[in-house]
Design brief:
Layout lengths: L5 E6 L2 H11 L3 E3 L5 E7 L2 E7 L4 H15 L3 E10 L9 E11 L2 E2 L3 E2 L5 H12 L5 E8 L16 E4 L2 H11 L3 E9 L21 H10 L3 H27 L8
Parallel strand pairs: 1-4, 1-5, 5-11, 6-9, 9-10
Antiparallel strand pairs: 2-3, 3-4, 5-10, 6-7, 6-8, 6-11
């Protein structure tokens, strides 16, 4: 066992970051390069959070700045994700045991991730029970916008679509730092997005506002669907933050 000095956390969106900061209470701002960062304490451990922005490139770049600034003993990719199958509901949390990159709808080779200690998983389960949600072991499928996944059931367990973990994993491998993942479900077959995310973004994961507004104008019912999406996203960001704080508050995290 080794004494952990710093835990590095990477979230893509301000909503994910803000949900976590509400849970931890006291924090201070820092500046990992051009990215927004926050520092706080959990169980005596220093946690450094960076908000990367959406997409694999930004996540990779933000992680590099984070690693150079803090030299963390473990990294955590956290936030929200979309379910691929109907086995996951909004608010459920997936601790990914592996990650793969989705290219043209086909998942690439699986890269193993670090596994949350038993005590951390038990703490997550207890925290989620109070919110009528569940914890699953699964697979992070990093996409650049595509929501279509072509694979045979059983090849990948509880897959979730997100846009950052593969980029974070690249830096973690280069530096020899364990990478954990924790994602809460905001959408999926049971609560689909009211639009095709890939069609609304460019290759660098930038949202085309003009395309979005045009789509809304042509499909006015999307306004009602978007309200539900906002509600589901709020549930997911809160559950991801609550689960993360529960996990990181366990001494067993030092065993990684």
């Amino acid at each position: 066992m080794r004494q952990m000095e710093t835990i590095g956390l990477i979230a893509a969106m301000p909503q994910e970051r803000d949900a976590l900061l509400r849970c931890v209470g006291e924090w201070k701002k820092i500046a990992p390069g051009p990215f927004q960062g926050h520092c706080f304490k959990l169980l005596g451990q220093t946690c450094v959070l960076v908000t990367s922005g959406i997409g694999i490139r930004r996540a990779r770049e933000a992680t590099r700045y984070l690693v150079e600034m803090t030299i963390p003993q473990v990294l955590v990719s956290f936030g929200i994700a979309g379910a691929v199958e109907t086995d996951l509901e909004v608010g459920d949390v997936v601790a990914a045991e592996s990650v793969c990159l989705l290219e043209q709808g086909v998942p690439g080779p699986l890269l193993p991730l670090a596994t949350w200690p038993d005590a951390a998983q038990e703490a997550i389960v207890q925290a989620l029970t109070e919110r009528y949600a569940h914890l699953y072991a699964g697979t992070a499928v990093t996409t650049q916008g595509s929501q279509f996944v072509e694979y045979r059931p059983g090849e990948i367990t509880h897959p979730v679509l997100e846009m950052e973990t593969a980029g974070i994993a690249q830096v973690a491998m280069e530096k020899g730092i364990p990478l954990l993942s924790l994602r809460a479900i905001s959408d999926g077959p049971c609560a689909p997005l009211p639009f095709n995310l890939g069609e609304m973004m460019d290759e660098d994961a930038n949202l085309h506002v003009g395309k979005m507004l045009k789509f809304v104008a042509c499909h006015p019912r999307i306004i009602l669907q978007s309200r539900q999406l906002i509600r589901n996203t709020s549930i997911a960001t809160d559950n991801a933050a609550i689960a993360l704080v529960a996990a990181l508050s366990q001494p067993a995290i030092e065993q990684l």
